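Possible race condition, two jobs.
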Amino acid sequence: MSNVNVNNEFSEFGKKMKIVGIMTILVIIPFAGSFLSFIGFIFGLMALGDIRNANNKLNQASLENYRSKFIIAVIFRMIGSVVSLVGSFYSFSNMLDFNYLYDFPALIMSFIPMFIGFVINLIAGALEMDAWRSLTDFFNQHRNLFPTYVANEASEGSEKLRTAALMNILSFLIITILIGWILQIIGYFKLAKLEETTGYTASATTPLTPRVQPTSPSAPSTLGANFCSNCGAKLTGQEKYCPECGSTLN
């Protein structure tokens, strides 16, 4: 896996995260904030395409979990927002009818759509937290694919965004909205460091092959039987004369 070149995909992902971070800052601009937020949302979805392209080569479960759960979280959040909006409009319109205020059961029923939308948004937040956790796991487990400082920044960035998702879940506390917004900005710009992976060659660990010392063949043994050069009779090596033919032995 370390030999697979995915620098371009992660670099493009980092560039889009930078744009998302900039748009997140600019949402405070009056009137234009909603439009800029939508632009950031679009670039965030486009960044998921870069993750898909990278994972086509890497085939990592953590990357696929990040992408799939983030998409599901977006879908749930859209549904939850629509349900909450409809519920708010329905509840507000009923509260304008003063006769309706005396019908307590009906009044409670009018808040049910808002409650359902709130629960759906909680589920969306939990899914988003799990998505960012998967991305953090990927960067922690595959640091060799990136320069050390980039891997650290990317891991910290995805963890910041995970915490930001938690702050959004707790948005009913009001102050957590500001905390989550700040954490999002920090997280997106840390992930933007992935832009600097262009041209980086992932390190590959080459297993060392133990060197085997050549073994010299054993020297032939000088021990053993000799033979007479004249008749070929077997000798013990102690004789001076061949016992068969009487030849003098050297």
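Job #2 (started ~2 s after job #1):
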Amino acid sequence: MSDANRVLRDARFRNSIGYKSHAMKRGHFMKKLGRAALITAGVLIGASVIGGILNGIGFWGVMISAGLIGGGIWAAMKFPKMKIPTPETLVQSDLKSLAGKTEIWLEAQRPALPPPAIKIVNDIGQQLDMLSPQLQKLKEGDAAAYEIRKLMGEHLPELISGYRAIPQSLRRKNNDNGKTPEEQLIGGLSLIEKEISGVTEQIAKGDIDNLSIRGRYLELKYDQSAEAE
């Protein structure tokens, strides 16, 4: 892959798929910016104090201060990197942050997915944005909350991880059921998108007690024999 294509690809996948993930990334950036500002202020105050005691810090003092500020800003903006949620952490996430963390996890998977699946992932991000405020109506211990976490932290990751585990040469090869792994992935993601939309509508209508995640439709298993071929 050429450098130009790599830059275009990276720019494409830096875009957030939803407002929740964008807000979380913005919050992380603002924290780093705040640390950079504190480092800058600390160096300037320290230089001023030393300059007052020594009646000036001189040329080298200015250069050292500038180096400390530059290095501090670089380190503050570079580290720590934002942690990508894992399926395990998604299952344990509180309802307030579940949608945003799921969006961030999905964004990290996009480079490995085919274009039709990426479009559906982007649509799932929009559905998660609509689901997020409805989740505030649930209690952490509700059965509905458990099922939603299971959908986000088990069914969705298993579907994508199962696809990624298949060699690229076999992803467009029909298996015994007449479908390719790529088609199964796209179908599974479409079902999950519809499920999230249905969950949002059910909660919005106050139908929490009857909320049921149709997990049996999402437990897609790839043909093990196809991987062995």
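The chain has two domains: 3-78, 87-228.
Logs attached separately.
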